[in-house]
Amino acid sequence: MLGRLIIDDVRPRTPGGYPAKALVGGVVTVKADIFREGHDLLAARARWRPTGGTWATEPMALDVNDRWEAELTPTQVGRHELQVEAWTDHFATWRHDVELKAGADPHDSLATEIEEGALLIGRLAKRAPKEARPVLLAAVAGLRDGARSRDERLNAGLDDHIAALLTGVVDDTDLTRSDKLTLWVDRELAGFAAWYELFPRSEGGLAGAAKRLRAVAAMGFDVVYLPPVHPIGTTHRKGRDNTLVADADDVGSPWAIGAAEGGHTALHPDLGDIDAFDGFVDEAATNGLEVALDYALQCSPDHPWVRQHPEWFHHRPDGTIKYAENPPKKYQDIYPINFWPERDADRKALWQACKEILDHWISHGVRIFRVDNPHTKPFAFWEWLLPAVQAEHPETVFLAEAFTRPKLMAKLAEVGFTQSYTYFTWRNEKWELEQYLGELCAEPLVDYMRPSFWPNTPDILAGPLRNGPPSAFRLRFLLAATMTPVYGIYSGYELSENQPASPTNEEYLHSEKYELRERDWDDPGSLAPFITSVNDARRRHPAFAQLRTLRFHEATDDAIITWSKTDPATGDVVLCVVNLDPIGWHEATLALDMPVLGLGWDDTYDVIDELTGSTYTWTGSHPYVRLDPARQPGHVFAIRARS
Amino acid sequence: MLGRLIIDDVRPRTPGGYPAKALVGGVVTVKADIFREGHDLLAARARWRPTGGTWATEPMALDVNDRWEAELTPTQVGRHELQVEAWTDHFATWRHDVELKAGADPHDSLATEIEEGALLIGRLAKRAPKEARPVLLAAVAGLRDGARSRDERLNAGLDDHIAALLTGVVDDTDLTRSDKLTLWVDRELAGFAAWYELFPRSEGGLAGAAKRLRAVAAMGFDVVYLPPVHPIGTTHRKGRDNTLVADADDVGSPWAIGAAEGGHTALHPDLGDIDAFDGFVDEAATNGLEVALDYALQCSPDHPWVRQHPEWFHHRPDGTIKYAENPPKKYQDIYPINFWPERDADRKALWQACKEILDHWISHGVRIFRVDNPHTKPFAFWEWLLPAVQAEHPETVFLAEAFTRPKLMAKLAEVGFTQSYTYFTWRNEKWELEQYLGELCAEPLVDYMRPSFWPNTPDILAGPLRNGPPSAFRLRFLLAATMTPVYGIYSGYELSENQPASPTNEEYLHSEKYELRERDWDDPGSLAPFITSVNDARRRHPAFAQLRTLRFHEATDDAIITWSKTDPATGDVVLCVVNLDPIGWHEATLALDMPVLGLGWDDTYDVIDELTGSTYTWTGSHPYVRLDPARQPGHVFAIRARS
Question: What is the pLDDT of residue A316?
Fold first, then answer.
């Protein structure tokens, strides 16, 4: 049976009832449709707590169209409960009605209404804080004071002070509660971070890679992500450029995990021992970086699990183990795992073993995992694994590397992935970017999916980067770093590495997945200074940590894309204007939605380019911009209103 | 724990899990997001049954973006259950993969794949219909026939005939079911009907009103709706034109229900006795009409309940019963009911008594109720009452007369109202109509709320009808009757009664709510012929019974509104082009979305005006129209493609 009030469409929530996502220190707007029959006024509040903790409450206010809102700011990581409570505000209703009646007829004694008010305030006084009671009881006496005039008696109850004392006093005669929602609160890095991916073997192993960390940190990155660091199989090992037969000195793909030396909890001997690994993690921390590891649940034919647990793999009628296929392509160097063995005990042991891989690396200080191809493993597995790990280590972050259909990507985010790779790499035109960001910023998706934009990965060299000039690399970097709070690049990007494997293949020529790669980090053409300036601007402006406040503004040229972001906590606003053509200059007149920028339509204001330091003074909503990619791909403006 | 497959966002459904609505003989499109990890092909079906009945199944087909659909056509009224089932189509996956492999490498024996196919077909044969098994087992033998070539063996399994036999065979190894959804199936009249409201007392009571029924039926109406037929209170009775003091001969408002003669189950003596009522219902049926009664849960101070059950009313501190108020307005002739008496036994008795009113009139052949102000009664009451009545009489129809905020109106529909009054009366401009219809046609609202458009009611004379010419009445009638499957008018409309109570009041001058009204039904200016022609067109075209297929098309003039509707079962299409200006002629070039009309972009086709019989031959998507309101408010076109 329905409650006395209706509380519908409470948010944030996910379609399937999994926890919505929030950040420590980030504003969570709780919303609900709240109404009841008739015309009485209502009151509502949100209550919330860390699971098992103490409830806190926040009053909700009516926005429009029976939609109520409250803003919460979580202060600790982990699972939270959230509930909306609403009740009829009998006092506000009485006050509203009696004021109208008194104004409409000065001769009506309103004796009954006055006594109704006295009874009501007397009843609510019992539910009010103790210190408020004397004043409330005095109001009751004033209402009933026959020696006073009608309006004097009324004023004893209508006084603003009485209303203030009764605000938020819960009237339990028709108190109605929504279902409980859950919220997963992550630490700040889970929602605002710049990632940098590198192959330690190209740097001479973990010890050598540790020497790169200072430079990576200096560019402004927060996370250094390593492809799998485990022993690599030799059976059917792939050669350079993904050839089927490897030479004796070919290093193989790190994703062909497992060899005689061990599996997912072992280190490749060439990278160093566990002390080298711990040293790498420590050196990262010293530089203000966190280490992210790859979590790729697949095995080379040489992985110890293949011998120890053949029941964890798929078998063919001839008894052999099935290798990976995407017909007609064959991946004989990889055995996919069978997550649904016939015996449920085998399934449980397998899933537990998968968790123990994470436990192992967590015990070595890793709290971030980039998960390889999660969409080829059961959703039920992730639904179990991710909360199980986060129950013990709530600060753990999982990035889903799923480039698949939109509903699968959303579902992975819903069942618990902290961040998600996206289609950004294939969104280059203005309309494509506007449409895609529109999807990512819309409820309910924005309540549980955190997109991470990657201009490149070791697998993907796409769009204008293919044989593209450094200006294309600046452009795509600027978009990724300023559109989404979380983004990343794969090393070599700053050197504008641009050679594709073929005109149609999106892989790199001489892909680092199959061979070591030497680079000249001191190349004078390096984009490191540009990257540093963008990351610095990101850190200066909390608006860059926001996604749901992103709004596009119009521009008269289809190559000029314009958007703003606002941080609701600080009011910080940034305005980005980017030329999507990496070759030619473009000019446009913008049509800025001034209220979105916190400005009036005819205001005069300064815009300060956070990348160059240049300041322009604009008036009104239609400024002119001209962007030459040879100089800079776009403006990242802070806005300073002129008083 | 999640199932092996994901089945999300199953529709039709309501946000709160109440039954979605369907009609006997109407197409229900069942939709679901269905996917699983990896790349295997899937199969799915919808299964459904009347509650307690036998399951029927319908195969689902993949539409786009992991959205699957099936079409059902319910055949009986009442509550139904609906569920989506999905499983991995291992055979289709095998077939797809092995065809690619065979094509890619003619020298690969594919021995393992062939044996996999034999095992798979052998396993599925056990689940297939008995008559299919011999052919399937022959295919298994063919696959294993070492005397044949590779491709001969393969073809034994790849033959289309095998695929056809295995289509729909449920593979229970990973069969996954969605939650059960509920569907309420109404009879056709609940979803497609024209209503006509009349005050029988103005026709000399029920016997006199019965003589009007032939004319009402001749105009093409399906339902004749009577305001309350009960005794009317005398205490604080309202006089003519809603004056506070009634003269001795004033008849009072039928909504001030109850007097010494009885309450909601009694008839007003002036209308006739129960035999006259039964006779009216019979005469309606003879004319192909159904009778709708008003269900107004409020009492005059003279209602028997006031003495018998004072606990069913609100009391003031001085012991008196509260009359209705909308401060500062007072309605002393009406006592609202207190649906939440202190004692729950009183609440149950009250709610039961409310149901018994309906039971009484149902026992006299009434199956349609227009419910007065349902938004001032608890949602929990309707949530209980409507299904309780429909459980016993599933053909019962409830129209919600709620002109309130959108979320309350939607919630009333969700908890069980069959049809809903709307804001149509206040939507006159093209953009207003397009926006409002857009809301009404959108999921999920269209799955459970059936809008009923009323150009006028006894309470509402609005927009261009106020002091408006007959052309305004034709215009608003045409919109109501062709935009929504259910609509109604209040009698006098056909006589273009247009005098408002005042320049600001939306009531009629000399409102029939407070006095009898004489009319000359034979007025030569009557719109009855026009109304008849529109209702005839509605009956000829099943597309008019559709709402969710309504699509607007563009026109170059803001006064010309253009839309089409399609009936998915028959393919019937109607195209309406209406001039929203009741005074001046307008012309426009249309921009028709030709595929929506079942036409190619450059087709030549006839459009036949169903109101005038005129036929025009058009070519392409940009025809020209000119509409003079002195002649007709708009075209209602049938479309005939030229071969």
Answer: 95
